[in-house]
Amino acid sequence: MKVEIAKFLMKMMPSRPTYNAKIFNQESFRHPNFKILNGDQKSKTIIEWVNKANQKSFEKPFEQYFPHFPFYKYFRNKIVLDIGCSIGGRSIYFAEKFKIKAMYGIDVDIESINAANIFIQQEKNLNARYEFKCAYAENLPFNENTFDAIISHDTIEHTRNVKRSLEECKRVTKKDGRIFLVFPSYNFPFGGAHIGMITKTPFLEWFFSADILNRALNEIVSEWEEKDQWYKHRSDINFGRWEKVEGGIGINGITYKEFNMLLNKVGFSNVEFIRMPLLEVSFIANQYPILKCFSNMIKPFLLINFLVDYLSHRLIYILTP
Questions:
Q1: CATH number of the CATH domain containing 274
Q2: What total of structural domains would you count in the chain?
Q3: Which residue among 23, 85, 124, 317 has its CA within the 20 to 30 Å range from the CA of 92?
Q4: Residue-wise DSSP of 130-182
Q5: Residue 247 to residue 234: CA distance in whole angstroms
Q6: 66 pLDDT above the threshold of 80
Q7: Domain range spanning residue 159?
């Protein structure tokens, strides 16, 4: 019954994935319009995707989430890892802007990593050194104390084992380094469950578990025409199952309370949590600053820990090993 109710609500504001040759999403590699391209055409499209991702990082920079941290001073000449780098647009933006010495990036999707490497091989005006690898946060292919810093944006919620991912971050970061994590709680009302490809209905996360929404999504996708099946989620058999859902929305359902419990188990010398209300750093708020008045109104409520999951734009942490 819950699955049927969730499906009904999803269909009230339906969405359908579209392919855009200028804007990347991970499933774009599977679309027939990309697959029929020859090698040179694919490279040209990939370069356009990376450039667009780089541009989006200027429009909504990662450092917006950490308004009081001295990024220019801290990151200059540092060795940095980007966990969940996708095709590398944000990694390159960050490294070039803050004059990083070496930027490493990992992602579980080999096609995204190949795209990042195609870009850095052809782009001649990069100052930092880059290395992109296909890898998992739960098993980082680096030695202990390798990095001065780790950055990660909208990735922690996708890891199969959050505790192991935190342990690995701590292991590869120098003792005086920093780990910058930004990710949505499962209870983020405008996409915490990552079902935007099928619905724009908000607040579903507040009333349905990740498993229920996952099942509802899969049933709706099964009704799609064949031409839309390119967007259907692929279960990744390389590294086990998600903690709460096996496929579909591909998230672990992490919340503020659960994440803090895991931080305590792993043990960090310092944990700083930055309270940031809904919409404060969103693309739409950047376009329409009046929406930040709404953010300012709800900001005091973030002092109540119970409401953090529901009213935070992202969960934002600076961790010191």
A1: 3.40.50.150
A2: 1
A3: 317
A4: EEEEE-BTTB--S-TT-EEEEEEES-GGG-S-HHHHHHHHHHHEEEEEEEEEE
A5: 7
A6: yes
A7: 26-189+249-320
